[in-house]
Structures are given as structure tokens and as C-alpha cells.
Design goal:
Number of strands of chain B: 12
Number of helices of chain A: 11
Helix content of chain A: 25-40%
CATH class of the domain at 5-91 and 181-188 and 211-314 in chain A: Alpha Beta
Strand order of the largest sheet of chain B: 6-7-8-3-9-10-12-11
CATH architecture of the largest domain in chain B: 3-Layer(aba) Sandwich
Strand content of chain B: 15-25%
Order of helices and strands of chain A: EEEHEEHEHHHHHEHEHEEHHEE
Number of helices of chain B: 10
Largest interface: A-B, 46 and 44 residues
Largest sheet of chain A: 8 strands, mixed
CATH topology of the largest domain in chain B: Rossmann fold
Oligomer: heterodimer
Strand order of the largest sheet of chain A: 6-7-8-3-9-10-12-11
Radius of gyration of chain A: 21 Å
CATH architecture of the domain at 5-91 and 181-188 and 211-314 in chain A: 3-Layer(aba) Sandwich
Radius of gyration of chain B: 22 Å
Amino acid sequence: MSATLEVRNLRTHFFTRAGVVKAVDDVSFSVGRGEVLGLVGESGSGKSVTGFSIIGLIDPPGRLAGGQILYKGQDLATLTERDMRHLRGNRIAMIFQDPMMTLNPVLRIDTQMIETVQAHAQVSKAEARARSRDALGMVGIPSPEERLNAYPHQFSGGMRQRVAIAIALLHNPDLLIADEPTTALDVTIQAQILAEVQKLATDHGTALIWITHDLSVIAGLADRIAVMYAGRVVETGGASDVLDHPRHPYTHGLIGSVPSRNKRGEKLRQIPGTTPSLLSLPPGCAFRTRCTHATDACVQEPPVSDIAPGHTARCFHPVSA
Amino acid sequence: MNPPIIELRGIAKRFGPSYDAAARLTRGLAERFGKPPKNETVRAVDGVALTVAKGEVVGLVGESGCGKSTIGRMVAGIMPPTEGQVLFKGQDVTTLTPEASRDARLKVQMIFQDPYASLNPRMRVADIVGEAPLVHGLIRKDEFDSYLDMQLQRAGLDPTFKRRYPHQFSGGQRQRIGIARALAVQPEFLVCDEAVAALDVSIQAQILNLFMDLRRDLDLTYLFISHDLGVVEHLSDRVMIMYLGRIVESARSEEIFAHPNHPYTQALLAEVPRIDTRKRRFTAIKGEIPSPIDPPAGCHFHPRCPHAMPRCSVETPALREIAPGHNSACHLNDQG
């Protein structure tokens, strides 16, 4: 079975006045039908830029500086903007962190949804409205017919995010990229959204890339995990492999610093130092200045090595399992 | 148990709109013509009692809009309560002399959620941290530099940075500046309002460790406000769960996580994503958090509660002790 999306050696660089920011630097991963990939990293790790690169929303001074984004074998990086527009919002959709930024505050929900339907399907307005109503119902919005006439500000944060998800689902996309869609939401509302998204992946076979900094959310949702640090994927593998037997020292430290992984009231294991600026990354492994395993070898760029079938780490000195 | 350092008795906080002359006139007219004026008052906090003993860490947990930050602000003396008393070491803060009241307020300091919004961008670190102890006469001018260096070091900052401005620091370092500022006036009590919510996981661990070190070194007492149950469980001795302005359950930390009693607490604990769970089925508490302008009658949680009975929509359950030190506000506890 071929993957829905395969990203190979993706590089997205921002050519700023202060220098070249290698926000995404040699990133590779793939997602199959109905699979959930968790893309995990801290702020500035390049996880969101990876998402934006796939859907073709990188603005100058940033641009794709190399690599392939293969959607069903077709390289999205070489598509014209016209061809990309046929895919975006249709076969490939994205949900953003802040639903207030994705919904137009001065247009009613029905206007925004009907427009999206008609952008990719030759249907009447009535038909488009009916589809929109069904999509709202599917994400659990009560009385969808009336709610179509509402404006975004008349919804709560959780409901607004559902509307954004409903819009993303209008054309039953093959690939959905979710960029921290529940970070701003309360725990009980987050669980509702996760339940909807999970159903989607299983029922429609949508491939899902879930971008987050929250390891606990990803633990319950993802099939596979890719961990990013300073623009690179440092570890990939099945969710249990990565979370229970992390091999890269960064992943190991990150999981160790989650409070529930520590004894109550005792000091949390912490990673020393702070994330380096992408403008002045140390040569070689970007994590070596914070790493307890680092040696002279780490001045060289470590290669991606297979540690177990389907489990890779970019490290000379992987933590023993 | 140690004597209480902070005690809240029957605290309530209501926020209403302030009406200008025209609005008062139209409301008055509407009332004369038989249309009752619309209730626009938010009951942010509704009859909360809370005691924090010396040396204790109390976690206050709830979702957005439940009133947990409002409680924090009232404890820190930033906001007066609409009803009820705030007692500092057994004395009502409103009855203190101006000097005593000022001293009491210095002893309770607050650390805020957003390390970007809570520091004045036009002040240097030296002034942000050093101004208050100087103004309040805690230190003399000639002691300023050595005192400042000590405060910065204690919060894990390099004292050579003191001439810098906040924008020259990362989020985690800014939060350390906020902590140094709070500790510079030698408080006994810290209110941490979502103090690690804006930080990355690896930085969050560093700041939580700092809080624990400071507690031990300076004999501090904390009110730790958070929506993150994992963080609260790790840090707190006692946990209080809030829902729409009321405390629905409180108990010792181990007790509440092992035996949650209130249906809301149970649902909340079930929904918390945990790193040890794999590929779980997410189920959800039905419904949304109601608006605090028009909360449901009786128990605020009844429209979402799986065990709701007719009584729950009429009668507000009282917070009662169900086991030693374990209080819960639920009618289910009255049944055999």
C-alpha cells in the first residue's frame, strides 16, 4: 500500500535580512490511509512550517529550498499555484490553532461554507447548503440548520473550532493537517474534538497529521510519532516505541520532564538550557549543547539510523532501550 | 496542621456593566413599561470558602471561566471581593490599618500566566525586580546592587543581564524575571496563576523545579492555579476543583486523584490526556460549559451530568465532608 503523503528531505528556508533561517531542514516522513501521525516539537522546532509547506502556504521570505512532497505519488512542490488550488481545501485540508483567525468575522457561517463547497464542486446553492448543514451535524453542532445563519462571534471557542473542522471536512479530504487545533480549548472540549477527529480517520480513511507540543494528547491519538527539534526530525517510530522506549536523548528528556512521568512532589527531570536560535545553530547535531551523551563525534551531522524496524533516530549515541 | 495564612470566607465576586446616564434612563423607562431589565451580572465567584495553611501548596483547578483567576486576584489583594472576607493570618484585611494592610499585601505576591504581558517592556530588569523593595524600604540604596544580584541568581538568572530589557529574553527567562520580581519583596505566599501554561514542556519542568526549590528554601506557601491536572497533581498537597464559580470538590491530592467523588471531577480526570495511554477512544462530557451570566439553577453541572436527578436542577448541593478532609458538593452523596 502506498502512502497518502510522503515527504522526502523537505527543506523550507526563510531568507531574512539577519540570515537564512532553516526552519525545516531535511525532514522526511510518510502517512498512510487512515493513519494518524503525531508531529511533536516545542516552539520553533519547525513543526508548523512543515504543515504549511505541505499545503503550499509558505510566504516570502520563506520558500521550499529542496525535497519532495509526494501526495499519492505527485510532487506538490512542483505544482503550479492553479493546480495546487484544486487540491487545497479539497483533497488536502488544514485546521489551524485559532479558529477566530480562519473564520471571516463579518460573514455568516453559511456564506463561508457554501463558498467552500462551490469552490470545488459544481452544485447548486441549495445543494451546497445541505452539504454544509450535514457537515456541521457530523462534527456535533446542535441544530445545524439554525446555526448556519449565525456569525462566528456567536459561537464559543470549542464550537468555532468545530465549524473550522466541518469546513475542512466538506470535501472528505484524503489528507488533513491539524496544527494544534485543541491547544486553546478546555480539557472537556478538547476531548470532544479529539473524538470527532478520531472517528473521521477510522470512518473515512483520512490520513491525519496532528501537529502539537503536547505529548499527552498525541499518546492517545497517534499511530506513529515524529519528533522535531530545531528544524529536523530527530526520531520517528510507532507511538508506543517512541513514548515507551525513546532512543534520541531529546525525546528521552522531553518525555522524562512530563509531570506524570515523575514521582509526585519530587524534582522533575529537566533538559538543561534552552532551544537554540535557528539563526545560530551549532554545527553538527543541534541538540549537542544540551545533551548529556554528547561527544566530539556530535560536531558532525549525525545520520538517520534505523534502530528497530520502523523506528529511526538521528543520533550517534542513542539511549539504550 | 499549621495555622492558616490565608482564609476566604463566603467570598463572592460579581461583575456587572456600569451604566451611563442614557443607559440608566432607557433601563428605567423599560422597567416602567413592564419590561424587567436584563440581568447582565456575571457571578464569577459564588460563595467560596478556602483555607491555605502555612507551608502548604493548594492547587485550584478548573476550566476557563470558572472563576479560578478571580479567586487568585482576590487572594493577592488586587481585586476586592463583592461579598465575604479575606483573612490574612486571621485578620480581615479590610479592617487593618493602612500600614498593616500594605505589609499584608507585600507578603502575598502573584506570578502571572503571560510572561510577555506581565513585564513592562520599557523597564530594565534591574528596575522591574529592584523597584518594589527599594520603594517599600526593604533595602537601602547602597545595598541595591548586591540585593538585586542575589534575587536574580535565586531565580536562576545571570546577574550580568540586569541592564537588559524584557524583549531580550526568552519566555522561560521572562517567567524567571516575574518570579524574581515577586520574591524581591520577601513574600510568604505566592499566587501562581497558570504560571507555566505558556511555556514549552522542557522549560515548564525547569520552572516547576524552581518553584519546588523555592518552597523548601524560603518556606513559601502557594496557591497554584492551573487547568493542567498533571502539573497540579505533581505539585500540590491539596486540590480544589471549581466549576462555574463554585468549589465542587476538595481533598488531599492523592485522595482526589485516587477517589474522585463529584461527577465533574470524575469526568475531568477521565478526559485528561495522559502520556501512558495509547490509541484510546476519546469520549466526551456532553454539552458546553454554560455562561456564567445565566448559570443553570441548582447544581451548575446538572445539564451535563450523567447522574442528574430532578432534585439537582432545583436545589444547590452544599459542599459537605464525605470522608476526613474530603469535601464534595453533590446530591448523590445523600443517598444510601
